[in-house]
User: Fold this.
Amino acid sequence: MTAATPAASVAQQALELFRTNRFSAPSAPSPGVWAAPGRVNVIGEHTDYNEGFAAPMAIDRYTAVAAAPRSDGLLRLVSAAGAFRESVAEVPLRALSPGTPPGWVSYPAGVAWALLDVGVLDGGSFGGADLAFASTVPVGAGLSSSAAIECATGLALAGLAGADLPPALLARLAQQAENAYVGVPCGPLDQLCAAFGVAGCVLFIDTRSGEVTPYPFDLPAAGLTLLVIDTKVHHDLGASGYPDRRAACERAARQLGVPALRDLTVAELGRAERELDERTARRVRHVVTENERVLEFVSLLAAGDLSGTRLRAVGRLLTASHVSLRDDFEVSSPELDSVVDAALRGGAYGARMTGGGFGGSAIALTAQDRTAAVAAAVLSALPAADIFPAVPATSAHRVC
Assistant:
C-alpha cells in the first residue's frame, strides 16, 4: 500500500482502528481495505431526481473500510469519526430492516441489506463482517460522505463474499440503501460519481439513461484551482427541505404532463408559469435552466482547454447556477451566499453552492495565483469556514 496517496493514507487509519478494536485474532489473515471518494458537484444541482444532467467529480477525500468476514451472522462496525467514534455497534443480519439502527450505522447496514436483497450476498452463506471505517470526507458538508461510506461498504462486502460488483450495480444498490433503508430520497448522482470517478476528469451524467462520460478537467494544467469552502453549517437532507423540493418537482411534472422535468425546454417555461403556482414554477425554472447550464458547461469542456472566453463562460455558469439555487430553488443559506459573494469579490471566476443545500459547502473556481486572495476574502466573511483545494480523483476501489 502506497501511503502517499489520499486513499492509502485513510486506508491505513482504518486498518489501525480495526486492529485497535481486536476485530480478529492475531493469527487471522489481515483484513482487506476498500475506499470510495467524496464528490464535488461542479454543476447540475437537484437535476438528478428529475432525470436530468449533472457534472460532478470525485475528489481526493476518501472513506475507507477495513473489513474481514465473520461466521456468526453479525455486522460489527466501528468508526473513527463522529459522535460515537470508536464505539463498536453490532447488528445481526437477521435484524436488518429499513430504519434500523438509527445514525451512521444505518448507511453500511442498508448496503448489506440491499446486497442481500438482490442476491449479491448469499443469505445462506454470508456470515457477517467486521467493518472499521475512517474518512477524510467531511460529514454534513454537502460532499457526499454518505455515498462514500455506501460505496466503500458495498465493494468491501462483495469482496469478502467473492462477488463481482460492477460500478453501475454498486451505484444502484448504494442509492437503494439510502432511499429505502435510510430514508433519504436522493437521486443517483452521488453514488454514480463515487462508483465511476476518473482522476483528472469531470463526469457528465445523464441520470435517465445512467450513461456516464468523463471529460478532461485537469485544473493544475490549466493554472486553476477549485476551492471547496465548507461553511461548517451542517445539514440533514432527510429532515430538511430536500424531500419537499423533490415532491414539488414530481408534482409539477405530473401537472405539466411530462415524465420528468428533464423533458421540459426553456421555451416551455412560459407554460409552466401559467399552469403552476408561482413557487412551483420557480422550482421548475431552476431545474430546466440548470440542465441547460450543464449541457453548456460540457460543450465548453469539449471545445478545448479552459482559458480565455471559455474560462470566463464557465465561471458565469457556476455563478448563475448559485443564483438559481438561491432564488428559484431556495436551497441556499446565508452562510453559503456570503462565501460565494466573498469568493467573487476576491477574484474567483465563478462560485456556487454545491450539494443538496441548506448549509454545507460552496466551490470557487480561481486562478492559482488568486487562490490566497480568494481564500482570504472568504475567511473575512466567514472566519469559521474550512477551505481546501480539490482535484478530480479516482472511483471506489480496493486499496489492499
